[in-house]
Amino acid sequence: MEETAAAVAAEPAAEKATSYRYWVRESTGDAAPVPAPRKLDAADIAANPAPATLGSAWNKAGTWEEKNLNSWANSRIKDLLGSLGPLEFSTGKASVYEVSKCSGDAFLVIVRNKKRVGYTYELSLKFKGEWLIKEENKKIKGHLEIPEFSFGELEDLEVSVRLSDDKDLSSDEKSQICKDMKTFLSPIQKKLREFEEELKGR
Asked: 97 lies in which domain range?
């Protein structure tokens, strides 16, 4: 009976000795001291700057934020296309002298601290030129119409030609002038690619 009682009494002691609380309490004597809290100074903050976030000051988490870039985009498109140089053709020459229509939207969106840009525009450019028609230099004006296009669609850009006064022209003459003016498509695409690159850098 005495042996049984002694064994029963020893069980809690053994369990106590192997428990997590017992081990932590007994090992704290040899453990490293607990670090004392210390207030960060300016040097500490400068050495460990917060990760950069995109967007406005209020949007520290970099969650959804959209910025309207219409004012900048409209002005930039007009500047770029207004600087198109003149082109010469086999029987004439022409130049774009005004962006008469620049309708659309441009925007910057920040989602999860990632930046995305986009736009949708529709354009009309005024041109003037001079062609040799029936041994006479004839001055002609018109519009280059560019239907709605969006970011990343410049390879599929289309341009149509509308002549302001073509009553004295034959169908063949009008076709030739329209064919000549459509060669402005490539330099227009080049200018709009510049616009896209600048937009991505905003």
From this structure: 65-201
